[in-house]
Design brief:
The protein is of the alpha/beta class and 336 residues long. It contains eleven helices and seven strands. The strands form three sheets. It has a three-stranded parallel beta sheet with strand order 3-4-5, with helices on one face. Strands 1-2 form a two-stranded antiparallel ribbon. The protein has a two-stranded antiparallel ribbon with strand order 6-7. α1 packs across α2 and α5 crosses α6. InterPro entries: AB_hydrolase_fold, Peptidase_S10.
Length: 336
């Protein structure tokens, strides 16, 4: 999304150089000024001087983001006239509409500075509702990852049961088979090859342990180096680039503030999941007349578009235009 991208090529760490960058021809900055924020505290290069500052959750981190924006616009008033949108994808689907609502409430209360909020945008967004996970079954059936028989068994015996906590034996066995098939693919983009998973999560003990075994020098979590044609190779390059002292100096990272940059290391972040559902925020902010763009990649099995379509329909907005393709250079590039 930003102005630069990594050159995808074999990287030789012994050369003493950092991975090469090139300008991104389709960057969002060609159409807008973009603020990228490391959130929650502890993500990226963000840090807290007080250890208690890391104990945040979805609600509190949303409020911190609103506070950050208030301070930023106070220091940069020349940007107040710009149309402002809040954006994020995937997990940010719980945060973005909440932040937008908080900003709208400040506007209604007459608080200064007055941010020129116009709307928000979310991509393949989670909501916290069961539909996020439940939609994986019909989606993966539709693209042929699971069979008719397995799909019908799950539909018959798992109806109304939690995706991760089936209550009867037949459902449990069917879901085990489903998850085994899901493990065979790269779920973020089902057409990509399955490679090393570079973002260990609390439930990914095997990968986490493998990475820890490769500790070298001062850096504690170097990711395994995947093949160049793996999608995660970009993450490997990002790790090397972000942990280079020259990079840190040019980015203005305070010395000693963050010992190591990692793309995702949730075990070190005490984060509370306290937004049960973001749908109410979508309803509130759009009902006030703010614009919303909800977009989905149709090869994403993490938060499938079927679930997104379902909760969007639940908002009961009238359909002003029929479903149709949108085009790029004369070719269908998606549907809306």
């Amino acid at each position: 999304m930003g102005p630069l991208r990594f050159v995808i090529e074999p990287y030789d760490g012994a050369s003493g150089t950092v991975p090469r960058l090139h300008y991104h021809p389709y960057s969002w900055i060609k159409a807008a000024s973009v603020l990228f924020v490391d959130s929650p505290v502890g993500a990226g290069f963000s840090f807290s001087r007080d250890p208690r500052g890391y104990g945040v959750g979805e609600v509190s981190s949303s409020l911190q983001l609103k506070t950050f924006l208030t301070k930023w616009f106070t220091e940069h008033p020349d940007f107040l006239s710009n149309h402002f949108y809040v954006g994020g994808d995937s997990y940010a689907g719980k945060i973005v509409p909440n932040v937008a609502q908080k900003i709208s409430e400040d506007i209604e209360a007459g608080l200064k500075p007055t941010i020129n909020l116009k709307g928000y945008l979310v991509g393949n967004p989670i909501t916290g509702e069961a539909i996020d996970m439940d939609s994986r079954v019909p989606y993966l059936h539709g693209v042929g990852v699971i069979s008719d028989q397995l799909y019908e068994t799950i539909m018959e015996h798992c109806h109304g049961e939690p995706y991760d906590n089936p209550k009867n034996v037949i459902c449990a066995q069917a879901m085990d088979r489903f998850k085994a098939l899901l493990e065979e693919i790269y779920d973020s983009q089902i057409l990509y090859k399955k490679c090393n998973y570079l973002s260990p999560t609390p439930n990914d003990e095997t990968t986490y342990g493998r990475i820890l075994q490769q500790e070298t020098g001062a850096l504690k979590h170097p990711p395994p180096q995947p093949q160049v044609d793996c999608h995660g190779y970009i993450t490997y390059l990002a790790y090397v680039w972000a942990n280079n002292n020259i990079t840190r100096e040019n980015l203005g990272i305070k010395a000693g503030s963050m010992g190591e940059w990692v793309r995702c290391h949730e075990k070190d972040l005490p984060f509370t999941h306290d937004i049960e559902s973001s749908i109410k925020y979508h309803r509130n902010i759009t009902s006030k007349g703010y614009r919303a763009l909800v977009y989905s990649g149709d090869h994403d099995a993490v938060v499938p578009f079927l679930g997104t379509q379902s909760w969007v329909r639940s908002l009961n907005f009238p359909i002003m235009d029929e479903w149709r393709a949108w085009h790029l250079d004369g070719q269908s590039a998606g549907s809306h």
